Amino acid sequence: MADGLVMTTNSGFDGRSFAGSFGYGSGGGAAFLPGLQRTLRKPVQCSGIGLHCGHLVNLTLKPAPADTGIRFCRTDLNPSQAWINATWDRVSDTTLCTTVSNRHGHSVATIEHLAAALAATGIDNVVVELDAPEPPAMDGSSEPFIDLIESVGAVVQPAERLMLRILKPICVEDGEKSAALLPCERPTMDVAIDFASPAIGQQRISLVLAGMAFREELAAARTFGFAHEVAYMQSKGLARGGSLDNAVVIQDDAVINAGGLRFPDEFVRHKALDAVGDLYLAGGPFLGRYVGNQAGHKLNNMLVRAVMADASAYEWTATVGPALQATRVAAQ
Questions:
Q1: Is 297 a catalytic residue?
Q2: Contact present, 45 and 77 (Cβ < 8 Å)
Q3: Which of 31, 117, 306, 311 could form a disulfide with 145 if both were Cys (CB 3.0 to 4.6 A apart)?
């Protein structure tokens, strides 16, 4: 296996910076913390090319009542068949991205970057209207969606937000790949990858999801792929909207994007970003330690399903330990 960069990042647990920047103040805890539920202050729109469909997509994020969760509405479909819940049990495909479907067979793909942005900004309830089978790719990261959400801000709702507390270790495997959730006082990501290409090599990142951690460490990390794989996918009708504008592309063991990488270890940071989005489909933020070893969307969904299948493995709770409670108080 080719030698590559190994980098570990640890972020502090400071809720005040995030609360202040997003206007939470005394309204409750910050993202990845219990408190009161939130939705958008008002609708906000964006447009862009879909990564796989390859054509212009118009997307609108709209406020939603408490306990709605994340719901997609395909405006290009018959209204009676247009609604799709973004939940772990509606995941129907994990090839290249995370796809959710409804009972009518209609789907929305590539939802993980938007889901991660919603998690990172503490948005519990939202209606996502779009006129295509996937959100716009934007730049291949979560950052444009976070910017969009922050441009309108959030409002607190009169309903308690619960966290998915992990009570015992749960692990799923697929060959040499694995993903696990372990009990932990703080929501923590520990992600490792290992690619033969020296452009990637071995990389690892570990951080606590608190304060500005996601915004500063993960949000801008873009999706990536190899040039020969992109060409093959496009020949099969996939990745038709993929370009150097919305992905990091590797050719002949080198990154060919004109601006290079945003982080020396951008690849593993994006894998962590993906996992945050996939785990948010559980129905709320998790309280535990995620450990991913060469994991992807398939293993992430398998992991959430394994947790949900074992009632002794988790609880939904607003009660937190001293470390998390201190951060919640600081964010108020």
A1: yes
A2: no
A3: 117
